[in-house]
Amino acid sequence: MNWKTVFNPFERFNEKQLLLTGILAVILSIATGYWTGTTFTSIYKISDAENASFKIIAITTLLSFMAAIAILFILGKILNNKTRIIDIINTVLISQLVLILFQCIGKMPYIRLAGKNLIKYESAPSGTFPFTDFLIMISMTCFSIITLVYSITLFYNGFKTATNIKKWQHIVLFCIVSLVSILACQIVINKII
């Protein structure tokens, strides 16, 4: 396996393998969401859903993924009539796989404690600076940025592979449509939970 495979598994693995992995990712994200009290309110947005039922977490997560799939499929068909739905489904689901880690991070007590300690120190700076807590928070920030960039890279590469886009205008349109759909999905789904 080389770096190209890591950043664009859509060219290396067949659509059935990717779909199976994507379905497992959805099941895992719903189960993790129920455990952590979080749910996907759109792709790239995980919200707290404390005391929410398993049903609500499953519905909101599935709706966010289905909305992204529908919008990207329509855009893909506009850009290339040969775009297949399975490729778009794989793009969305595989790109969200690594974000399940974000759901687990909030459940780690030492990370929450580190954040509270830094906030407490910031509001009343007395005593020694909580350097260990600061390092924990900086490390988590770096980890989060790297994970998010990787997920967005998978999202873009999957769509590019599915639609065979090459023109810069198509890439800009993909970015704009993705951003608008993410924001719209958040607004709609936040009203549900």
From TrEMBL:
InterPro entries: Yip1_dom. It is a multi-pass membrane protein. It is found in: Membrane. Keywords: Membrane, Transmembrane, Transmembrane helix. Residues 19-185 form the Yip1 domain. GO terms for cellular component: membrane. Its main location: membrane. The chain crosses the membrane at residues 18-36, 56-76, 88-111, 131-159, 171-189. It holds the Pfam family Yip1. This is Yip1 domain-containing protein. The lineage of its organism: Bacteria, Pseudomonadati, Bacteroidota, Flavobacteriia, Flavobacteriales.
